[in-house]
Amino acid sequence: MLDNYSKTPEGVVYQINPNPIDYNLDYIDYYVDLNRKFGDEMSYLRLGYIIGALGRVPSSILDVGYGDGSFLRVSSKIVPECYGNDISKYPVPEGCNPVDSITEQKFDVITFFDSLEHFRDIEFIKDLNCNAICVSVPYCHYNNDKWFDTWKHRKPDEHLWHFNKESLSNFMNKMGFDLLTSTNIEDTIRKNAPNEENILTCIFEKRL
User: Fold this and answer.
1) 115-165 pLDDT, tens per residue?
2) What is the pTM of this model?
3) What angle do CA 137, 8, 134 make, to 5 degrees?
4) For 5-206, which CATH superfamily applies?
5) How many CA atoms lie within 13 A of 105 on its CB side?
6) 127 Cβ partners below 8 Å, 6+ apart?
7) For the chain, what are the domain ranges?
8) Listing from the earlier edge strand, what are the strands of the sheet with 60-64?
9) Residue 144, phi then psi, degrees to nearest 5
């Protein structure tokens, strides 16, 4: 593997000694501008996928790493209780509630859209109190070191963890969650290389 990278027993590729970046408002503003080209299309796609997979509208949603709050803004139109947690402290949309701790209360669904790969330690997943988790991450195929070295989503010190479907499922299973469904539906909006999935989205249910 490349220098400063290794792989967990579950198959998750990770950066060994990262120097995490500063997730300030300037960082969020960059992605706010980037996301404007999608409008609310991505948020409706994500919410529709969750509702379809669960067969119901969630009673509550916590969006971890909510960024500019676009997913919360859309969700609040139909989900009774919407909460957000983000390191940048960017304001949550009107009608939603910010939370400092993601483990102190129970939520029906917790979402990690483009956020799980940024955490220094991801084992906190086992402490989450929820019925289901939706995770969306860059799809790491790791065909070889050359591929990984030039992969657009590698982003050292920003993306610290890299998953494919098997490794993400293995990790979540270890944390007490079972895979319900998986897709690369976001590729309909976020263009990918020919014949290669770009974004992996999975929904996991808490094991009883």
Assistant:
1) 999 999 999 999 999 999 999 999 999 989 999 999 999 999 999 999 999
2) 0.95
3) 30
4) Vaccinia Virus protein VP39 (3.40.50.150)
5) 15
6) 103
7) 5-206
8) 97-98, 81-85, 60-64, 107-113, 130-138, 199-206, 177-183
9) -170, 175
